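Data availability excerpt. The first of two example chains:
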Amino acid sequence: MAEIILGVGSSHGPLLNLPPEEWEVRANFDRAQPELAFRDGTYTFPELAELRACDEFIDQCAIEVKRERYVQCQSQLDELGAQLRAADPDVVLIVGDDQHEWFFEDTQPAFAVYCGDDVQNLTWSEAARAERIKVGRGGDLYSYRPENDQTYPVERELAELIVGAAMDAEIDVAASMQQPTGPDGIRNIGHAYGFIYRRLLQDKPIPIVPILQNTFYPPNQPAPKRCFELGRVIGQTIRDWKSDKRVAVVASGGISHFVVDEEWDHKMLDALAGGDTATLINEPNIMFRSGSSETKNWITVAGIMSETTSAMELHGYVPCYRSEAGTGSGMAFATWR
């Protein structure tokens, strides 16, 4: 039977790819947003700044602090990548979220499993590259996409087994049998997957299984309980797979952003580390909005790893602030061993 040898959780936000001197560009992006989600409320930037008025946020945005936090994050990513590559898995199953990269308003499944033979990660077009540089995102051009087009193999047999097992468990999932296309050709694999392949795997051609969750877009975001249930089905399917392959599982994204909420982050991370399933699955769905919704990817992986004897170890939590309203990203890095 197959074996789950390692679980990994990693944030993948843009501040991980931008020099600290450029974080202010993303702060200007926050200031221009008409709505910012924080806990169970929605605010304009001035409203959020007034609500959270605190000298600490200004201190946290000092360039010296930003540089220190950036170095901490890069060290954590280096360590996670080293552990993942050293484990030398035969398959890497990545639980991520699709942010209108494959699926759009015409069809947005709550869950999807990609079952093609391979998947492409394409470099940026000249027009897209120029636009990212224009809006201050040039520093992360190649953190999600490669300098040259890459084709990654997919473990199709396992992907199809997961679809069948989920349906048997009365969890409806979409089976994506072919990489979608749009007006400009093939739609690229999402950033949640590209980041793991580029930053942690360093484009080592290990077969993957992409699990796509709709954490962002109403009205059909799955509840945290449903994510955990899907994870348990995936974990059992891997263990029942008649194969001698060794599987690593990765949660991509999270924790709180684009408004940092350290209290909530620690609540979720403590529950994950302590195996406190009740806290995870009973957290109100409204708390999982905007980028914070990606924390559901960790909950799905927690469900997968609940089918093993592994416990989550938090290697690092780094709150990365970029504005006086406390916007930014709570970065977390963990393993299940």
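And the second chain:
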Amino acid sequence: MHITIRESGALTTVQDAGRYGYQGQGIPLSGAMSPLAMKMANILVGNPVNHPVIECIGTGPEIEFSGAVCFAVCGGSFRVFLNEQPIETNRTYRAKAADLLKIANAPRGRSCVIAFSADFVLPAVYGSWATDIKSGLGPNRGGKLQAGTVIELTEVRSTLPNMDRRFFPPGTPDPGFTVLRVIEGPNAESFSEKGRRTFYENAFTVSLQSDKMGFRLEGPAIETVQGNDIISSGLCDGAIQVTPDAPIMMMKNHATTGGYAVIAAVISADFSKASQLMPGDRIRFRKVSLEEAQEALRKQNAYLLAAEREFSRKGILGIFRK
């Protein structure tokens, strides 16, 4: 069977966990903006957590199914419709032949992903299905999915166990602003004590000049003691470079190296929350230890593992039951 992109949406691409092992050659990691949304959606449809998905940024696509398959939409609070009827995010559904799935805009959140209980018949590039449009890497010749694109599916599963229990409860959005946990960056000594206090004690606003490479942050100037320039060094997801103009939080398509001082880095457990920020959203940063960051990631992974076991288990334990 196959799916057909009837309407493309603002920016619809194929993504997975990213292109690991090639940053030393200058090839960006790329991958889904929200790794947590990707993992949740794949768990809901019985896939490995890093299985390829379709990612939507902004208004999403309209997709037609040629046969029966299960799917799930996770991420921002997008409005989702199956045959013009509203359906929930973070829940598994079954589509049949000629059904139409439509992803409309989101009141909150930048991106969502769609996972299917099937494999995509698409070529991997450097071992990954992640699309990086600026580098021209990934399926569909490194481009976004256009209207008329047909994606063949194989190893299709049209039913899954415990369909009525395959959902994640909705989260509660932060009122007013988002708090992101960070660990101290490798260039903290480049900033004065006043500069570090400014960073941790003030709110910053996500600028309109933000994309999948990085989010520019508007706020008070962060004082340095030896300038912003450093010898270029490697960057990771969530690293916050302080340029002479503004701090920039590195997102999934960030460059492999950078020459500005990194004051902090968003912890892995909070990166997916950071990825959903929209222009105008306000954020604060809270410093935690490396041990706290590791524990937060362990808890997040344990939650996903418990869900994966729950969805495949026979019986009615229902740890996510409403």
